[in-house]
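Morning, I've got a small favour to ask if you have a moment. I've dropped the whole record in just underneath, so have a look.
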Amino acid sequence: GIIDFLVSQHPIAKVLRDHLVFKIAPMLNPDGVYLGNYRCSLMGFDLNRHWANPSPWAHPTLHGVKQLIIQMYNNPKINLEFYIDIHAHSTMMNGFMYGNIFEDEERFQRQAVFPKLLCQNAEDFSYSSTSFNRDAVKAGTGRRFLGGLLNDTSYCYTLEVSFYSYVVGGTTSAVPYTEEAYMKLGRNVARTFLDYYRLNALVERPLAPIPKTR
């Protein structure tokens, strides 16, 4: 949904492409997924626990993406602002995010802006299920590792989406996820970048009113 929307001719997508560069790795675990695994690679590694020191032999996709991120971060011409790792969740419902905890209260508050905006755009995204933590068991995740590596203008999240259903606010009935519902959430993630950068005055040129992408 994110990719299809960003390469579309939708007015929001055009504005985003005019102002931002998106680097997208569609899948870091192709061999594991091919075998039917949803967490482990062909060699049995949980790739989202090896960000601190990925092996080019044992974790080649992870190693390659990490090197790309570090190269961009060290390039003075690039302002690396967002890292979002996308996963399915096997027990919780809805879409939600994990973020990091920082001693700098102002940085911590700024980190909450994007998921709050996404919650306004996507009925299946739950801000109440979104959490910010520094659990030791999550130390090897991309979100935790890069949150400690990148500077205070960078925001690192894990976007989790339920394997099976979501509950719309104010109701108690679970709605099964469909392929189209997942695609819709992806589109809403993409359009939330426009809301975020409008809020932060990056997108300055006037825009005609644009209907929400649901």
About this structure: Strands lie at 82-89, 95-100, 131-133, 155-162, 165-167, 174-176. The longest strand covers residues 82-89. The chain has two domains: 1-21+79-204, 25-77.
